[in-house]
Design goal:
The protein is mainly alpha-helical and 392 residues long. Helix content is 77%, strand content 0%.
């Protein structure tokens, strides 16, 4: 509290008014230059406090005010569009809006006026935003990747993402050599590029190139002295090895990622659940009895972690539960399978709807399992409910 009082006293003495203290009447009397400074500070304050909608509104105002202060097609306008594009993507996940402002900024930068260093830094930021937005903007699902959200990109978006990241890489090299970037900033930026290209190459089936980018990411994290962040790189490498058919290597890499993630001071439970689920699926395909036991342990762990992180009504939890039920059937554990299938129905009805394909498939499988257990009355009820779907 003492620090707050001191800050307020300093602001009064210096004549500075914080964004939160500025009244509407004061804003109306401000010249455009001061309004621009006000909304830039306000946007940062709103972002820091998690008020993302208000932050974006402030940044939209900044774009308009920059035009008033500096004129149209000034480098400052491109920078304002770049900040707004980045905010749309990082704070809201709105890729189309981000790409629209990237395009507006690029049209201004084509003119090439303004400080060359500032221009290159702005273009670098735009390339990173464009690449990341193109990764989100896709048309066709590839696989749900155990709830981790990987997607295959249509050819257009994949090419756009690859082109943007490669351009960022070309810009980064000379900037780093000139000393315009701090070493840490350079490594972080290159890491972002490598991560994006890993996803692009994996979606295109260029798995060796994807692995090469993963190995570079590990080296960058070593240079940054941040090995605790490398779990996600090992996870990606594990999935790439799985896609290449190298099951043992995939299990080793995913196990390493799993161990690193769950031993952190603040473990990320949802990501840990996804890794447990991936390991369970891999080990369930093994012919060794010991691996089957480990698979069951990982299935149980994934359900526990999903339950505590996202809840039992989340799609990731229900997907893992369905996979576990199929595993239990193959292991001859029909009673446990029937128990889990029955327990999942209320959540599936709430998430997908009473007449959804997910509910119908669950009822049909449940009826079959109940019949195999000799529970004819229960099987009849389940099958009768399934019959409603065929009548609709």
């Amino acid at each position: 509290m003492d620090q707050d009082h001191c800050r307020e006293a300093e602001e009064k003495l210096s004549g500075i008014t914080s964004p939160a203290q500025t009244t509407r009447s004061q804003l109306l009397l401000m010249p455009p230059e001061e309004k621009l400074q006000h909304f830039e500070a306000s946007a940062q304050a709103h972002e820091d406090s998690g008020q993302y909608d208000a932050c974006i509104q402030d940044l939209v105002r900044c774009v308009a005010l920059v035009r008033l202060v500096y004129g149209k097609e000034h480098l400052k306008e491109a920078q304002a569009h770049s900040r707004l594009a980045k905010a749309y993507l990082q704070l809201k996940g709105w890729a189309p809006q981000a790409l629209e402002h990237v395009s507006s900024a690029r049209q201004i930068l084509v003119l090439g006026s303004g400080d060359r260093l500032e221009l290159k830094l702005c273009l670098l930021s735009l390339c990173l935003t464009q690449g990341a937005a193109a990764l989100i903007t896709h048309k066709y699902p590839f696989e749900r990747e155990r709830g981790l959200g990987w997607t295959v990109l249509d050819l257009c978006t994949a090419a756009e993402a690859e082109s943007a990241f490669l351009q960022a890489e070309q810009i980064l090299g000379p900037l780093a050599e000139s000393g315009a970037l701090l070493q840490e900033h350079r490594c972080d930026t290159e890491l972002e590029i490598c991560t994006g290209l890993t996803r692009v190459y994996r979606s295109q089936g260029q798995l060796e190139q994807a692995l090469s980018r993963c190995e570079r990411s590990l080296q960058l994290l070593k240079d940054l002295e941040q090995p605790e962040r490398s779990w996600c790189v090992y996870r990606n490498m594990g999935h790439i090895q799985e896609e290449q058919g190298h099951v043992e290597e995939a299990v080793q890499l995913l196990s390493k990622a799993h161990s690193m993630l769950l031993t952190r001071t603040l473990p990320e439970e949802k990501e840990g659940a996804g890794l447990s689920h991936s390991l369970a699926l891999l080990l369930s395909t093994s012919a060794h009895g010991q691996d089957k036991e480990r698979a069951e342990d990982y299935f149980e762990q994934s359900l526990t972690l999903y339950r505590t992180s996202v809840g039992e009504k989340d799609q990731a939890y229900l997907t893992a539960q369905d996979d576990y039920c199929r595993f239990l059937l193959l292991r001859g554990q029909q009673e446990r399978c029937a128990e889990l299938l029955g327990a999942s129905l209320p959540s599936k009805r709430a998430l997908f709807g009473e007449m959804s394909a997910e509910v119908a498939d669950t009822l049909q499988l449940l009826g079959s399992v109940e019949m195999s257990l000799g529970q004819m009355s229960r099987a009849y009820r389940s099958m009768r409910q399934t019959h409603k779907f065929h009548l609709c």
